Amino acid sequence: MLRLMGRTVTTVLSSFIFQMVYLLAGYYFTATEEYDIKWTMPHCSQLNAEQQKAALPTVPSLLEVCGFAYFYGGFLVGPQFTLRSYQSLVAASFTDSPGKPPNSGFGLGLLCLTIYAIFSPHYAESYFLTDEYEEGVCILSGLGYNGVDQNGNHQWDACANMKVWLFETTPLFTGTISSFNINTNAWVARHVFKRLRFLGNKILSQVATLMFLAIWHGLHSGYIICFSMEFIIVNVEK
Questions:
Q1: Neighbouring C-alpha atoms within 13 Å toward the C-beta of 59
Q2: Residues with catalytic function
Q3: Which helix (H) or strand (E) holds 160?
């Protein structure tokens, strides 16, 4: 679409409408009465520093788009990483400390998987383990590399999607939000919330973003109720 229509507002709106219609049509034909982990998972002015880091300098090829969409480290939950990061990985421009194994979250994901396998017969099914497990996959593939910090230590948190200890111990709802689906929240903030600046009101931008997330998750009314409650609770906690 970019190649046909160029970098215009019409392209952005046309792409958004097409993707949302495609997404909702998929929900309509595949949704069940349960929480569905299938159709929804593969799909989530001047630029600031964060946007510049994720911006694409050129139009990606169809092969790059397909490779990004179906990359095994992020097809189940996401968005985990940007297309720009994936392109850098494929181009071998992501580097780590030569000769040293990555400081992977794979071990923590494996621990969660073991706990789940042991206790799942006694508790309702959940996909709580997938964030840490897939974070480990992304790290091992190289996508988790995030450069070096001020002390020269290599960082592997580019795909960090969950802070397990904070998630399990926080007494606040905002703590739960900040410790779960971290990259998804960052993606929504970057591509939806910040692009609603033209509304001139943060509350309206927040409401619109949460409604987008509700529709993104599916057609069940419970999603709208869930994200409406999130809006109320977060603002009450403030």
A1: 10
A2: 181, 217
A3: none
Neighbours of 96 (CB within 10 A): 19
> Cα-Cα-Cα-Cα dihedral of 187, 189, 195, 200, to 10°?
170
Mention every residue, 6+ apart, whose C-beta is less than 8 A from residue 84: 53, 54, 55, 56
- Do 155 and 147 contact (CB within 8 A), yes or no? yes
Per-residue pLDDT of the chain (238 residues; tens, 9 = 90+): 666 776 777 877 888 888 788 777 877 777 777 665 555 544 445 566 766 777 777 878 888 888 887 887 766 666 567 888 888 777 766 655 544 544 555 566 667 667 767 776 766 555 455 555 566 667 667 777 777 778 877 777 777 777 878 888 999 999 988 888 888 888 888 888 888 888 889 999 999 999 998 988 888 888 899 999 999 999 998 8
| Closest alpha carbon to 43 in 228, 215, 221 | 215
